[in-house]
Amino acid sequence: MHTIWKGSISFGLVNIPIKLHAATEDKDIKLRNLHKECHSPIKYEKVCPVCDMEVKAEEIVKAYEYTKGKFVVLDDEDLEKLKKEKEDKVVEIIDFVKMEQIDPIYFDRTYYMSPGDGGGKAYSLLRKALDESEKVGLAKIIIRSKEQLAVLRVYENTLVMETIHYPDEVRKAGDVPNVPAEDKVTKKETDTAILLIDQLTTDFKPEKYTDEYRTALLELIESKRTGKEIVTPVEKAPATNVTDLMAALQASIDKTKPKKTAAAKKKRAPAKTKKEA
User: Fold this and answer.
1) Does the domain at residues 5-25+88-169 carry the CATH identifier 3.40.1000.70?
2) How many percent of the chain have pLDDT more than 90?
């Protein structure tokens, strides 16, 4: 399992070297966008709308838009310095709480924790203490330059870290529109709904549930592949030097043509006849 972060858990005076591993993986099927005419993959380029040109990575800077159209530019040096000041590579446990006190809305991502070199015994100690106390550790950690709250708990004999949102990152439920303030249902309706819930209640077995859409999409892709319904991009025609050269020559001729002056126009004006005079 790939290690994505190395550091330690600070548990009072105990320091436990650990490694983080992603506990979940995204199995969404990635679909590419192709040009309908030639089946070539669509390119997404970074373009400056003012300069009307593609911008290279080294020409891009980070900035914060504090009001519409006004930015504060942050140099890479500033961000790197701030990162080094805050990034201690430590999971600092600051409190212990009951798991049921944390609403699931706060949870973000899950990581497995494995002990680093020489950390096996201290790892086992924390695991056993959490298990027997029936509590979880509330900690702080910096991952990818962001300080996050995290919960340390035991899952199938393995320490697991769940990053959680800060309170100001969770939107207020009271701001959700059109939520009925009062229940306008009868007791009979409630009893019937509870009866239905009781009939559908079972033990949670995660292996029972599958992504039916993903399975169907994979089957569709495979049937098209085996049925030879395959498209390939049309090869880009090589640029002809003749066309480019002619265009460049014509542009040069147009650019260097002498402009007709007012004096020249006057000189070429037809002379008046005696009759006209």
Assistant:
1) no
2) 36
